[in-house]
Design a protein that fits this description.
Layout (H helix, E strand, L loop, with lengths): L4 H36 L3 H21 L4 H19 L4
Helix pairs in contact: 1-2, 2-3
Length: 91
């Protein structure tokens, strides 16, 4: 167990940040799961609406350091492509 005051404080900060990051990661995963369910049901309108929210959460997670930038780009690319293919051919 830590005895030095700075180590005690760092431990407190670490536990607090861990809880916040866990919450943010959970929110990201739940939103992606909702979008994937809409895609599976072929709900084009619902998926298009949920895509904006999902992309926003992905960007925020990237900014907070929850996910790597390449992971964020991969998620955004795949989800956008799936929603676009669900909507039909480009006009």
């Amino acid at each position: 167990m830590a005895r030095i005051q700075s180590a005690i404080k760092n431990r407190r900060k670490s536990l607090r940040r861990n809880a916040v990051n866990r919450s943010r990661r959970s929110r990201l995963r739940n939103q992606m799961k909702k979008l994937r369910e809409l895609l599976a049901r072929k709900d084009a309108d619902g998926a298009r609406k949920a895509l904006g929210t999902t992309l926003s959460i992905i960007d925020r997670s990237l900014g907070k350091g929850i996910i790597h930038r390449n992971t964020a780009a991969r998620y955004k690319s795949r989800l956008s492509r799936q929603v676009a293919s669900l909507a039909g051919p480009a006009r």
